[in-house]
Amino acid sequence: MIMTRTLFASGFAAFFALLLGACQSGATASHEESGRVTVVFEHPENFTDFKDSLSGTPRGREDFQYILGKTVREEASRKLKEGERLLVTFTDVDLAGDLFAPESMGGRVRVIKQLYPPRVTLHFKLTDAHGAVLKEGDRRLMDASFMQTTSAADRDGDLAYDRKLLRDWIKAEFR
User: Fold this and answer.
1) Which of 26, 50, 51, 73 would bridge 37 by S-S if both were Cys, CB 3.0 to 4.6 A apart?
2) Angle value at C-alpha 113, between 147 and 71, nearest 5 degrees
3) CATH number corresponding to 36-173
4) Every domain of the chain and the residues it spans
């Protein structure tokens, strides 16, 4: 009985070590791919509209940071040349739509209307492999016709209009 437990424990330990190694190697590869693009959200608690409910929650801000940050990292990684690095700092976000539901109903319904376009204010810096600045600037992004310019395929997933605004900016800025 003791021998069986020992074998099971050592087998479990080996499996856990193998799993940990696989996760670490995956994280390293993922980090290298997105290591060229750094995304910073400067005081997101003060952004114009970066809320998952009328009062907003830290978890909601974290989710939105993840979604928008991932969009920028993935899209920019495709555009950058070998050795280039990009730093994008979000200084304000006003998500497409607005929250209208009363707090008693959870305040979690975002109503999308043409009146409430996605807006993003950001600073970016593109550097070469030696750290020399290739391009830098501040941008105020807005798509007033977002409901007409976003295809059905682009409307899939959370923050679809906001993600499209960022993808369009990256495509235009880093040709």
Assistant:
1) 73
2) 55
3) 3.40.50
4) 1-34, 36-173
Residue with tokens 């693009």, as numbered in its chain:
37
Does 132 score more than 90 pLDDT? yes
As given in the structure block, the two tokens for residue 69 are: 């940050």
Ramachandran category for residue 126: left, alpha or beta (phi over 0 → left; psi -120 to 50 → alpha): beta
pLDDT at 156: 74
The answer to whether 48 and 93 have CB atoms below 8 angstroms apart is yes
In the numeric block, which tokens belong to residue 67? Answer: 């979604």
Q: Is the dihedral of CA 106, 48, 67, 168 positive or negative?
A: positive
d(CA 71, CA 69): 5
Once rounded to an integer, what is the mean pLDDT over residues 130-151?
A: 92
25: Cα separation from own chain's centroid: 22
CB 127 within 8 A of CB 149: no
81: DSSP letter: P
Select from 118, 95, 91, 117 the least CA-distant residue to 108.
95
